[in-house]
Write a structure and sequence with these properties.
48% of the residues lie in helices and 13% in strands. The chain contains 21 helices and twelve strands. The strands form two sheets. Strands 5, 6, 7, 8, 9, 10, 11 and 12 form an eight-stranded mixed beta sheet that branches. A four-stranded antiparallel beta sheet has the order 2-3-1-4.
């Protein structure tokens, strides 16, 4: 008889699909298999998938010594089952240990590995016993012997939601050693060694620690208020918000279901990371006091369209061409931008191969990148990305930036942005393109910060923080953990010939 909960079975299926390289977590967690679940099971599925991906490196380190042959190669199905069980035992305090162990054993059997189910049972029971002993020891040493974690009944466990799980994970962070070296950070926060070592080298140990901690937690849900009256509607329905850190139109969601509101369905509020909003605002403001003359705008890599909407909002008189190379993403972009179809053209095009010359006043090139600034949102990147991928990414990024500079007329401006923390995709791309010849120059974003503050778009505190985040060349670098945003790099370039 099937004794596996829908949430655990769905999480296992998603993790196996990712192990086989079939898709990404973001797409799979929005797929039909997940949307068909109850709200409680959807939350638990999301918690399990993202939690295993975030902690996979450390989970494997904790599981291996418990195997009879620690260096043995495990079948992918068994490895996923063990990770799922270990994550529940070590990170989800409200999941009863027997439920996590028994259903992991059943998953192994149903995956066709009945012979390995005994090993799964033995390993997870050792892990549970070791954890229980550690919790008991810590509780007694702290003088709280009676406060050891007591799991709830089975009825409450499936309702364990993502926010509760993340809060528990954050509470545990206090007990994880901060680490006095990159090596200790790697172990404590489950990031690849090569990433942490680079961040330590480029930004220092404190920043590397902040990046790692940010990568281990679910990012806050951030909204953009297109209509300020929507906030009053939210308050009336019990939705709790707090102001954004950088932008006056941004709000962090504390509790409530925004997607169920009329304001969300009508497009008067949308979900968008505050750093992403900032990229759109800087792009819209890129021409400074020449903004009134902006008539033609190019968005080279437009999907999913949030930044395009900011460009349209700030330049209601302009014609916008929004490019996207993927047919599927282009169709999604068209649907999202349909209310503005009279002045936004959605075009299928490879941004690196654009041939238009001196057509646009302004271009936004938010290029495809490694995404290392979004590890909290996309934890599987740490397992997929390799150091040797960066030169290939940078080659395409340079091609897109060069095409965008050709597409704007002399005096036109291009905003280049990535959600990467890697210099090869950021400063090095700008430097390589500027080295092509004397037809372009980098501009400092300091004046853009002043302009956005004067226009009431930036908060005073946000403007102050951003000024401190300017690079020596005048670009902006948002490091995860420093702001409540994903990591971004933003630069402004002007064509001068």
């Amino acid at each position: 008889m099937d004794t596996i909960s829908p949430a655990r079975k769905t999480a296992y299926t998603i993790l196996m699909a990712m192990e086989r390289g079939q898709s990404h977590s973001d797409d799979l967690l929005r797929g039909k298999a997940v949307t068909a679940l109850s709200p409680a099971d959807r939350n638990l599925t999301t918690t399990l998938v993202l939690g295993v991906l975030r902690w996979q490196i450390r989970l494997d380190q904790q599981l291996r010594p418990l195997l009879k042959r620690p260096n043995a190669k495990l079948d992918a199905e068994i490895l996923i089952v063990l990770r799922l069980g270990a994550f529940q035992l070590l990170h989800l305090d409200r999941i009863p240990a027997p439920a996590a162990i028994d259903e992991s054993v059943e998953l192994a059997k149903q995956a066709g590995h009945r012979f390995a189910s005994g090993m799964v049972n033995a390993v997870l029971r050792k892990l549970a016993a070791a954890r229980a002993e550690r919790v008991s020891t810590l509780s007694k040493s702290a003088g709280f012997a009676d406060l050891a974690i007591t799991p709830p009944d089975e009825q409450e466990a499936p309702g364990h939601d993502l926010i509760r799980a993340e809060n528990a994970a954050k509470a545990r962070e206090a007990s994880v050693p901060e680490g006095s070296s990159a090596a200790e950070l790697i172990l404590a926060h489950a990031h690849p060694a090569w990433m942490v070592e680079r961040w330590n080298r480029f930004y220092g140990l404190a920043a590397a620690r902040s990046i790692c901690i940010h990568g281990q937690s679910q990012p806050a849900l951030t909204l953009r208020l297109q209509d300020p009256t929507a906030e009053a509607e939210f308050i009336q329905t019990g939705i709790q918000l707090e102001p954004g850190e950088l932008l006056t139109a941004a709000r962090a969601l504390l509790s409530g279901d925004v997607a169920a509101t009329d304001a969300f369905r009508e497009g008067r509020v949308r979900i968008q990371d505050e750093g992403s909003q900032l990229v759109g605002e800087i792009a819209a403001n890129a021409c400074g006091n020449l903004d009134r003359k902006v008539k033609n705008i190019l968005d080279t890599c437009a999907a999913p369209g949030g930044k395009t909407l900011i460009l349209a909002e700030r330049h209601p008189q302009a014609r916008i061409v929004a490019c996207e190379s993927s047919p599927l993403r282009l169709e999604q972009l068209r649907l999202r931008l349909a209310p503005h179809a009279e002045r936004i053209e959605c075009r299928q095009a490879d941004a690196a191969a654009l041939t238009e010359e001196a057509v646009y006043d302004l271009a936004l090139t938010d290029v495809p990148c490694s995404g290392t600034g979004t590890l909290g949102r996309n934890p599987e990147i740490r397992h997929r990305l390799r150091l040797e991928d960066l030169p290939r990414q940078a080659e395409r990024q340079r091609a897109i930036l060069r095409a965008a500079l050709r597409a704007v007329h002399p005096g036109g401006r291009v905003v280049y942005s990535t959600c990467s923390l890697e210099p090869e995709e950021n400063e090095h791309v700008i430097a390589a393109v500027l080295a092509d010849g004397p037809n372009a120059r980098a501009l400092s974003l300091e004046s853009s910060i002043d302009s956005l503050l004067a226009g009431g778009i930036l908060t005073p505190g946000g403007a102050q923080h951003l000024r401190r985040s300017l690079t020596p060349e005048g670009a902006l670098r948002l490091l995860p953990g420093v702001f409540g945003t994903d990591g971004f790099f933003i630069a402004l370039i002007e064509r001068i010939g």
